[in-house]
Every structure is written in C-alpha cells, then in structure tokens.
Amino acid sequence: MKAGTKFALGAILIVGSVGYLMASGIKQTGQYFLTPSELAQRVSADPSFYDLGMKVGARVVPGSVRKETATQTLRFHITDGTVSYPVIFKGLPPDTFTDSVEVVVEGRLLKDGVIHATDVLAKCGSRYEAVPKA
Amino acid sequence: MTLLGYFSLWLALVVGLWGAITGFVGGAQGRADLQQSARHATFALFGALLIAVISLEVAIFRHDFSVQYVASRTSRNLPTFYLWSALYSGQEGSLLFWAAVLSLFAALTQLLTGGRYRVYLPYVAAVTSLVASFFVSVMLFAANPFQRLAFTPMDGQGMNPQLQNPGMVFHPPMLYLGYISITIPFAFAIAALLTKKLDTEWMVAVRKWTIVSWLFLSIGLLIGMWWAYVELGWGGYWAWDPVENAALLPWLVMTAYLHSVMIQEKRGMLKKWNVALILGAWVLSIFGTFLTRSGVISSVHSFTESPVGYYFLFFLVAATAATAVLYVTRLPLLQAEATLESMVSREASFLFNNLLFIGLAFSVLWGTLFPIISEAVMGVKITYGPPTFNFVNIPLGLTLLLLTGIGPLIAWRRASTANLQRQFAVPVTVGVFALLILLVAGMRDGWALVAFSVGAFVVGTVVQEFARGARARNRQYGEALPFAVLQLLSRNRRRYGGYIVHIGIVLLFVGFAGMAFKTETEATLRPGESAELKARDGHVYTFTHLGISQYNALNRQVTAALLDVRRDGKEIGRLRTEKRQHVDALGNRTFEPSTEVGIMSGLRVDLYVVLAGLVNGTEQAVFRFTINPLVWWVWFGGFVLVIGGLIVLWPGGAPVAVKGSKASHVQAGYAVKLEAAP
Fold it and tell me: What is the secondary structure of B72-96 as a DSSP string?
C-alpha cells in the first residue's frame, strides 16, 4: 500500500472519530432548550418529558422571587408570556439574578409541576452597559 | 474634539477606499505611481484613525458626557486606569480601536517589508485598506463613537463593575491585536493568489506576523481565562462560551498553520492547505467579531443587539465568497513538489496534527452553532454545553498532546526502526513511569491519568532534544552544556523556542486535568463558625468566619468578609471576599452588586471563596468554598508558552531554511553536521 493511501485511511479514521465523538456527545450530554410554552406542549404530548434534564429559557415573573438565605433556597416563577412555571433552586444565584431578568434554568420538571433547578443562569441583555435608569 | 474625530473618520473612509482602488489597479497594471499612492494611503489612513482615537480618549478624559459613548460607559468617579480601557470597553470604541490598530499594522507592513517581497505590497495595501474601510464605514453608518446626546447629563452611567479589573484592561486589546494581525498574512495570501507568485516566499514574508498573531491570541485567551477566574466567581476559567470559542477558533487554525508551514518549507508539500489555513483563520476572526456583536447566539459577552451585526454578516459572506472564488481559481498553481513517502515520517505526524487541529476547530465551531442548527433542522433547540464540549474535545486534545511528543521524534521523509527505537526509548519510559507512580499514589481518574502520563512523555521528548543538541555542540565546539543549551536556543529559535511552547502546553494540560479533582461546598456561617472541606489529596481545610466589615470606597460600597484558613488544623493565612455595590458620584446605586472572589493560590491547590450574601443584614453570611487543584499551573504554563513564543519571534538567529533558496542548503549542511556528531 502506498503511503498516500495509508494516510488517507488515517485521515478518514480521524475525521470519522471526530464525527462519532460529536454525535455521541450530543446524544449523551445534549439537552433540550425550551421555552415554557414549548415545554407545556411537549409534556402534554409525551409524559416522558417529566423528569428529563433540560434547559428552560424565560423571564422571571416580577415579584415572584422568594429567597431563604438561611437554607439557600430560591423560589420563583418563570414565564414566556403565555405559560408560567414555578421553579425551586437550592444554591447561590448569580450576581445578575433579579426580578424580571431573563434566565436559563437548568433542571427537571417533576410531576408536581415544579421545575427543580440544578443551575440558574441570569442573562443581562447588555452586559457591558449600565442598566437604564427606570 | 468630537467633530474633529468624526471628520477624521470620514477622511479615513475616503483614504481607505482610495488605497484599495489604487492598490488593486496599480498592482494589476503595474503602474508605479498608483502603487506609491496606495502605499501612502496606508500611512494617511493610520494618521486619520490615530486622530480619531485621540479625539475619543480626550473626550473620555475630559468627561465630555455630551458624547453618548462617554456618557454610557464612564463616570466622574471611574478610576483613571479604567478611563484608558473605556476606549475599547464598548461597541463603538472597540470598532475604532480595531480599525486604528489594523491601519498601524498595515503601515508597518509597508515600511518593514522590503526586497523581493515588494511585488506583493500594492495588493497588501489594497486588502488592508479595504478591511479598515469596512470597519470605518460600520462606525460611520451604524455605530458612531462620536454620537452626541441631545442633552449633557451631569454624570455618566459608569463602567460595568465586572470590567473594572486589570485583566479587562489587557484582555481585549491583546485578543484584538491577535485578531487584527491575522489580516496581514491574509492580505499577503490574497496578494500571492492575485499575483500568482505562489512559491514559499510570501510565507517567509509573513512568518513574523503569523507568530505575532498567534502570540497575541494566546495572551488574549490566557488573560481572558484569568479574568473569568478571578472576577466572575463561578470557580472556573473556561466555559465554552460562544465568544470564548470564537477566540479559540482562529488560535487553533493558526497553530495548525505554524506546524504545516514547516512541511511546505522543508518538502514543498501542503501548499493548498497552508493558503486555506491562512484564509480560514482570517474568515474565522471576522466570524468571531460577527458572533460577538450580532446577538445571534446568546452569550455572556453579547453587546447590545444592533444593526452592526448585519454589516458584519454581509462583510463575512462577501469576503468569504470572494476569497473562496479567488482560491479555487488558483488551485492549479498550488501543486505539491513532493509526495508523502512514509506513514512513519515527520510529515505524516504533522499532517495528523493538522487534521486534529482542524477537527478540534470544526467541533468547536459546530458546537457553538449547534443550538441554531438544531432549531433550523429539527425545530427544537438542543444545547451543546460544556459537558458536550468536554466529551468531544478532551480526547481530541489529548491525542494532540501525544502528537506534540511524537512529532519531533520522527525523522523527515521516512523513519527507520533503529531511528524510532533510539528516539522513543527514553520519553516512553518517562511517560510509563509517571503513569505507574500516579497509579500507586491512588489516582484513578482516567482522563487525568492520560493527561499526566502523556504530558510526562512530551516533557521527556523535549528534554531529550535539548540534551542531544547540547551534547552535540559540546562535542563539536567544546561548549559547556549550560552554555550549549543557550546557544541552541539562540541559534535555532524556531525549533527550540517551539519546544518551550510545547512545555507550556504540557503545563496547561496539567492545570486542566487538575480540575477533575475539584471539590466544593456551600455554608452559612455566623462569626466564629467554621466550615470544613476535604481536598482530594487528603488535606482538610477549615474556614472560620471572622466577621463582616462595611465601608465606602471611591465608586463603590464594599461588604467584606474575613476568613481564617487552616490546613489540617494549622493556620495558613486569611482570605477576604467582597460584595461590591457600585454607586455614582451622588451615591445612587448603579449596576447589580458584584462579587470579589477571595483566592489563596498555591502550587497544589487554589482556595477559592465567594461571599454570596448576608442573612437579613446580620453578620451571618453565606459562602461558597471551592478547592481548585493545580490552577496555578495554567497561568504558569501560559507564561512559559508566551516566553517560548517570544523566543521564536525574537529577531536575528540563524537564517531560516527555505526550500529551493540558497539559505536552505547552508542550513541543511549545518543541520547535517549537528545530526552526524553524536
């Protein structure tokens, strides 16, 4: 076999394993990223969406945040305008987490209808600029 | 001043377009007067943009809040240090900074490049002027840094507290310098394609620039990691955020190029590939800018959504298309002069190294875009988060690390079995030995074991290379060994500087692998109470809450917690962590509170403490304690890498070998003598 052919085989092997790693990586670690409406739709169509790890992107409902600093528990509601879900999160919220901020909640929706979050990311629309004065 | 700045932007646009036209036309028709004019246009362009930069800095330092940019990003009580960085802390200013630095590089290129590379210069002037003109036109039509407000506020809105960190003063310019300097090799590549002078000469002309941009990208990435680590408070330094990825992509491609260009110089192979890498690195740098500014992909770095994104998208598509067409039409001229002779050769190992780099770059690109792709194709967004990135990239990265050790050991063209035995015996032994020691010590994490033992193998390779080279010099010239090592470094900077970069990479991997042994706990403590955290190496750390202090600083109200730290019961120091509420000059709150992490850094572990908050305003405080093993080695590895890069870059040294030129024969003879000596 010529060296060029051998090299082509090696190249195919590398390209193949990169592709395989990516495909199986997504399969094993990828998560759905849904809005509350999409989540409600999917849950009603397919109950297996309960207790499935996912991310939900929405806005915190103003006035819904309850912080218990002593037990480090955070309760709040998220909404996309049409559907709203309660969220419970044990842990420290990020600095940027406030009322009505956009958040990405990582966790599972359980049968009790509450999203049990393992992580909460707050997103600032314009991180590098000052908050507009209300 | 702002009027002057705005005027000079228009001037820059006119001059830039003039430079582009005269450069292309002058080059194509061989008209010396137009070529000269294009050259002068790059100088004028730099002059005009320099005036614009000075105008904006003057407005910032004078607190001229009638300028929107100044009012929305600075305030009267902002420390002077950060007034400098305000120039590039926002969208408009960073565009100006970008254009100005590009014009500086373009002017320097015209000044410094001489001799036989002169044929390329008109086209280089044209390409750089065109790219700079694009940036200037974005400022003029979508993001004017000199935009005035209808009224003049009493005070500005201030700078985001997370940008008020020394890392943020240096990280963006370093990264920008890396991004921007890619434009110079890109311009030479375009010039070579247009003039059809596609031998290796243009690559020699841009060698320094490719290393410069690689070095700046490296420094920018490292400082960015450091900033994320000390400022953001989530306990890590790399989150596979889209914008981090956007900076990593050109770095990966440039690193691939720096290796594959050696094959072209030595063996005349891979011509198409090398041109494609340069063109690709540049396209990725524009893609990264587009990603940062468009809000297409949500990221912590997103600037406000603005029409700027559309400009960049248009430019990206147009430039990519034009580049691709030019490249394809010139492909027949890029024939290799030699073919691969054996799989067991330096060429082959470099080829695999390149494939892995590009595979890695592709997986990062794919992962960054995957949420968009999955939504378009499957109708549902699927995340491609850090777990997925790690799943894919850790194996690829470790394979690359392995090749870092293998490449330098294999001979060019075809390696014999004897050669392989002679070369691999020591490094492989070192690697296996390291693996056994770690296994006996009780380490069981698979990837970390691979990382450490492969790292030891690579270090073995480098040390062996240095030892052989030094011994050869010792025999041939009678130099003492330490002096011989220095001579090696100074005589063959590219090779031995490159080995030092490899050592830096190994140290970085050691630091990355350390994160596999991270431990974390959260606790709510009253003064006097303690929390315990056991590190994976068995040491127990005790953190005792000593109390809270509150006071006002220049532009912020500080709440600080002091902690006593003990290792296995022995006091090792104190840690302090803060919550900062930034205020304006009147004492009104600006921004959300930010966290100042307490870090005690050591060779083995970093103790990392975050004050999350106080319970109902009492001194009872909530903390998060993290033990991050080996993080120090990331910064040290980065330092070594930069030093290695500087050695490669340092002017002078032995003439560089170019296939087909006279210098290469001289160099080859010299190398053979050294090889034959032992």
Answer: HH--TTS-HHHHHHGGGSSHHHHHH
Test the A interface: residue of B343, B400, B578 with most A CBs within 10 Å: B343
| B590:A130 CB<8 A | yes
| Of B137, B159, B181, the domain-final residue | B159
pLDDT at residue B595, as a whole number: 84
Q: Is residue B37 part of a domain?
A: yes
Nearest-CA distance A52 → chain B (Å): 13
Give B108→chain A minimum CA distance, Å: 32
Tens-digit pLDDT profile for residues A82-100: 899 999 998 777 766 777 7
pLDDT at position B665 is: 36
**Domain membership flag for residue B664:** no
Task: Please tell me the class of the A31-123 domain.
Answer: mainly beta
Residues in chain B closer than 8 A to A127 (CB atoms): 160, 162, 300-302
Lowest-confidence segment of A93-107, B105-119, B186-200 by average pLDDT: A93-107
DSSP string, A40-102: HHHHHH-GGGTT--EEEEEEEPTT--EEETTTTEEEEEEESSS-EEEEEEESPPPTT--TT-E
pLDDT, averaged across chain B: 88
pLDDT grade, residue B606 (50/70/90)? very high
User: Which one-letter DSSP state was computed for residue B229?
Assistant: I
Residue B137 · residue B94 · CB < 8 Å: no
Q: ∠ CA B247-B365-B142 to the nearest 5 degrees?
A: 60
In this prediction, residue B567 carries a pLDDT of: 94
Specify if B488 maps to a domain: no
Q: Kindly report the nearest CA distance between residue B366 and chain A, in angstroms.
A: 9
- The secondary element (H helix, E strand) that includes residue B500 is helix B493-514
Domain residue ranges of chain A, discontinuous segments joined by +: 1-30, 31-123
pLDDT tens digits, B116-140 = 788 899 999 999 999 999 999 999 9
Distance CA B427, CA B403 (A): 13
Check if the beta carbon of residue B224 is closer than 8 Å to that of residue B168: no
**How many of the other CB atoms lie within 10 Å of CB of B244?**
22
Per the CB < 8 Å rule, is B614 touching A69?
yes
Q: What is the ipTM of this complex?
A: 0.80
Rounded average pLDDT over A47-70: 84
